[in-house]
Amino acid sequence: MLGVQDLRVTFQSDGKALSAVDGVSLTLDRGESLGIVGESGCGKTTLTKAILRLLPANAKTEGRVEFQGKNLVELSVAGLREIRWQELSLITQSAMNALDPVWRVGDQLIEAIRLHDDCSKAEARARSVKLFDLVGLKSEWLDRYPHEYSGGMKQRAIIAMALALGPAMIVADEPTTALDVVMQDQVFAEIDRIRAAGKTGIVLITHDISLVAENCDRVAVMYAGKIVEYGNTKDILDLPKHPYTIGLRNAFAELDGDHELISISGGPPDLTNPPKGCRFKPRCPLASDGCNREPPLSVLDDGRSVACHNLPQVEAFRGVAKLASTWEMVERS
Ligand SMILES: Nc1ncnc2c1ncn2[C@@H]1O[C@H](COP(=O)(O)OP(=O)(O)OP(=O)(O)O)[C@@H](O)[C@H]1O
């Protein structure tokens, strides 16, 4: 359904070019869920905004985003308008602000449905009632204004809107950040039910790899604008192979709860002047001279792809990777 090929996004910022997404390729099938994880600033949001053509004017996008046979990078504004909502919908971090405060929530939902589907107001209202039921909101809330909703209810209303037209793909960018854990579980259960029932594809953007572990079939780990490891979620989170994924995995207790939290020293590089070769090299305990060449994203026997020159050393590294001292900052040029 979705095929992203060699996608590049460059921002012009303060007279400099910032390479936020650099040669990303990925796919998504119907009924499948793909998680995109990585630290803040690694390009997750930019990647999804590029897919949805929602980037600001200072961004230049190159590459292909094939969605149901159309290249979205080159699609006209009118063509895009047609597929947004109907085929492609977005649940954002700032979903709370996406509702218009001066309209009743139900009217906003009905309007969205009627904008795309030629149906009566009564039909659109009946569909809205069903959607609200699906996300656990009583139909009387259709007649209330956004300020009457709690944060969790607004998030559910946004999810109802995202689902309104039965899109083929939903991009969810930190969709539950503002919700408590119980509500978060309910929202994900709902998204997952829709994925399984309606054959909708889900792209989930998050910092939180435990959310990906619970909700995604496949995962793409991003670092400094590039995918460094990509494949089956269980394979990758049970036995990560890229040193960055190993570091990220160490930094999360939620997955098994029995290990010490270890952070990766330092931070992602300045993307206006990224390191030559592997972008993770300055923070990588396994880095060697060979890492001055850019590592290709190579497919391994188990089907995952990894971009690292030092894979033969990874098994031995796994043991010492559990020690905080391993990750102490060693600046490598
Ligand atoms: N409009 C913009 N103009 C210039 N640079 C930008 C713009 N938007 C994002 N960037 C830069 O692009 C890089 C990637 O940012 P992006 O928001 O995609 O990362 P992210 O992984 O989604 O982070 P977060 O998890 O914090 O949302 C960052 O260096 C960011 O500063």
Automatic annotation (TrEMBL):
Keyword match Transport: yes
Q: Quote the SUPFAM superfamilies the UniProt record gives.
A: P-loop containing nucleoside triphosphate hydrolases
Q: What one GO molecular function would you report for this record?
A: ATP binding
Where, subcellularly, is it found?
A: Cell inner membrane
State the UniProt keywords alphabetically: ATP-binding, Cell membrane, Membrane, Nucleotide-binding, Transport
| Protein family (similarity comment) | Belongs to the ABC transporter superfamily.
Q: How does it sit in the membrane?
A: Peripheral membrane protein
Q: What is this protein called?
A: Oligopeptide/dipeptide ABC transporter ATP-binding protein
Q: Specify the domain of life of the species encoding this protein.
A: Bacteria
Tell me which positions the record assigns to the signal sequence: none
Q: Any idea where the ABC transporter domain is?
A: 2-249
Query: Which InterPro entries does the annotation name?
Result: AAA+_ATPase (IPR003593), ABC_Ni/Peptide_Import (IPR050388), ABC_transporter-like_ATP-bd (IPR003439), ABC_transporter-like_CS (IPR017871), Oligopep_ABC_C (IPR013563), P-loop_NTPase (IPR027417)
The UniProt entry, under PROSITE patterns, shows:
ABC_TRANSPORTER_1, ABC_TRANSPORTER_2
